[in-house]
Amino acid sequence: MNAKAASCPRDWLQKEGNCYGYFDAKLSWDAAEKRRWRWADESTYNYKSWQVNQPDNYRNNEHCGELTNYSDFKLWNDNFCGNPNAYICKYQL
Description:
Blueprint: E1 13-15, E2 18-27, H1 29-32, E3 64-67, E4 76-79, E5 85-92
Antiparallel strand pairs: 1-2, 2-5, 3-4
């Protein structure tokens, strides 16, 4: 028998049948997950909100995404994957 959660854990956001959790522990991308522009469940992202002229893959070395305070954490920027950042997790209800 497979039991599914009816709601998200406390402090997680529920949207369109998924739960999203924000974690402010700073980790490199590799430490958090080894994927590019995909959720860990292999689904592609269907929401894009890049900063102007992003992603630019500066010096061919920016393969991870981040939200920055420059945009009040609303717009994405691509950055070096070794930079430690907070991260978001997603799972389907």
